[in-house]
Amino acid sequence: MVKGLPSNKIFQDLSIKFLLLSFDQLYQIDEQQGLHLEYHDDENYDFWTENQESIYSILIILFQSIENFLKKEICLESPLLILSTPPSKWKNKHFNDLLIYGFDDLLKIYSELRNVEFDEAIKAALSKIKSTRNTIVHGVYKDLIFPKEIITFTNIFLKEIWGCQWLKDIRPFIPYEWETCSETIMIWKIVCILEKYPGKNKTCFLLGVKTQDLYICPMCHYYNEKLLITNECDYSYFIRKNGKKYLFCPICENSYVLSNKKCQNSDCNDKLIYSKDDFGYFCLNCEVFLDD
Ligand SMILES: [Zn+2]
Ligand SMILES: [Zn+2]
Q: Which residues contact 78 (CB under 8 A, 6 or more apart)?
């Protein structure tokens, strides 16, 4: 019997931590060159040329996230399936002393177990991130990598492999921000990066937002104003629950109910005011909290 079989949770935790690390590193470096600038390869050419080692390390971290995700998925069936050491040589060895399949084989096993067939474009992207990572690790990679390429790989990973479950899975790992008492700042950093590179439509898709009728979330607006992550926390949309209309934010998962109060701003007089227990009133039109 193979000793010390790992649980899938070990690989899941690693996958999530590596994904968060890759986003965090990318946000930090992108912030240095002006996160809120529009994306233009040429204008930032010098900055990205000087920071290639950072981009290389982010790509490696992202690759580790994808590989650990595949291991996790396969381990849900059995950790023995990720071993490349032939069973005749397992004997009573410890799991850690046996060999594990490489990325291509893990991807193939995953595809068979989940009965998914990736199209050629996705296969090419996954092959590219693997070969780029290997060449970087061997110390001979020469081409420039821009953040857009990293985020393209991330988008494919989340959309085609992880699926819409990704945000729910990573949420327990989002660090608490003591400065603002917020649990969503890291998610907003991720959203900023996704919005800047793949764009708003793809970001909405990854967040499970199915409407274009979007509004500012009062709670996220409040925290972002303090830390200046973004000025536009507009991913909230209306839902109906038990016959009542709510504004729901997929980032902080708060729901806000409609109030009869009117906005105090004389120029506004909008009825779009929502409240949440003990959080006061917010005018969606003026984007400000109102005095009680
Ligand atoms: Zn929110
Ligand atoms: Zn107003």
A: none
| pTM confidence score | 0.92
Q: Are residues 80 and 149 in the same domain?
A: yes
187 is a domain residue: no
Question: 271 CA distance to ligand 2 centroid (A)?
Answer: 8
Residue closest to 292 by CA, chosen among 284, 96, 279, 94? 279
pLDDT-derived band at 43, boundaries 50, 70, 90: low
Cα 185 to ligand 1 centroid, rounded to whole Å: 10
* CA of 262, nearest ligand number: 2
Q: How many domains does the chain have?
A: 2
Residue with tokens 């998962």: 253
- CA–centroid distance, 282 to ligand 2, in Å, is 8
| C-alpha of residue 58 to centroid of ligand 1, in Å | 28
Examine the pLDDT at 270 and tell me if it is beyond 80.
no
pLDDT grade, residue 35 (50/70/90)? low
Distance CA 1, CA 245 (A): 57
Kindly state whether residues 242 and 143 are assigned to the same domain. Answer: no
**Measured in angstroms, how far is the CA atom of residue 285 from the centroid of ligand 1?**
16
Residues 282 and 164 in one domain: no
Q: Quote the CA–CA distance of 133 and 58 in Å, as a whole number.
A: 10
- Measured distance CA(22)–CA(152) in Å, rounded: 13
**Dist CA 85 CA 27 (whole Å):** 39
Cα angle 55, 60, 63; round to 5: 125
